[in-house]
Design goal:
Number of strands: 0
Strand content: under 5%
CATH class: Mainly Alpha
Order of helices and strands: HHHHHHHHHH
Distance between the termini: 40 Å
CATH topology: MetI-like fold
Shape: elongated
Radius of gyration: 20 Å
Number of helices: 10
Largest sheet: none
Number of domains: 1
Length: about 210
């Protein structure tokens, strides 16, 4: 059981980190383009983002995995496509603030192209927001992977993850409750620690802000 818990933790965290890295790429690209370009591009991209936020993504993920198959690649892709919206909105806000600053205006006056300015000036200013969003996003990804694996649409046995360990322990709740308690406790502690870490990063990177 200890071996499966340790290996399952590696799998759950690997899925969380990989899917969140993919979500960061999508979210940063959409947020930076929307914030820097403004106008119609901003309106279209943000309406798409708002539409994605309004969709019950867990049920969409269930449908996608049931249709495409419960493979590791599909699992990472589904979680990534369910997680980029918060990052996009955070990066857009930073891009809107940054695009009128003096160093961006100077780069534009010197003939810098839009892509170069976004990559070298706008996105680096968003790193604190991206870091905090990524940290909290890993917790969300681990929780979503565990839920999907529990329902049989995530990591498939004999590979172990905390979610499918919980699923496999349902028949032993009365006789060996530890089979369900230990994966559940590890999921709870992992998600809680990442949320605390994200809050700590936010406070450290914005020492003058008010704690919410």
């Amino acid at each position: 059981m200890l071996t499966r818990l340790l290996y399952g933790g590696q799998v759950s965290l690997a899925v969380g980190f990989t899917s969140m890295a993919a979500a960061m790429v999508i979210g940063v690209a959409i947020g930076a383009i929307a914030g820097y370009a403004g106008g119609a591009a901003d309106a279209v991209l943000m309406r798409i983002t708002d539409g994605m936020l309004a969709v019950p993504l867990f049920f969409v993920a269930l449908m996608a995995l049931a249709t495409l198959g419960a493979t590791m690649v599909n699992l990472v892709a589904v979680i990534a496509l369910s997680s980029w919206m918060t990052v996009a909105r955070a990066v857009r806000a930073e891009a809107l603030r940054t695009r009128e600053l003096e160093f961006v205006l100077a780069a534009r006056a010197l003939g810098g192209g839009r892509v170069r300015i976004v990559v070298t000036h706008v996105v680096p200013q968003s790193v604190p927001s991206i870091t905090v969003a990524a940290t909290i996003g890993v917790a969300f990804a681990v929780l979503l992977e565990s839920a999907l694996s529990f329902l049989g649409l995530g990591v498939q046995p004999p590979a172990a993850s905390w979610g499918n360990m919980l699923s496999g322990a349902r028949g032993y709740l009365r006789t060996v409750p530890g089979l369900a308690v230990m994966p559940g406790v590890l999921i709870f502690v992992t998600v809680l620690c990442y949320n605390w870490f994200g809050d700590g990063l936010r406070d450290a990177m914005d020492p003058g802000g008010e704690r919410s």
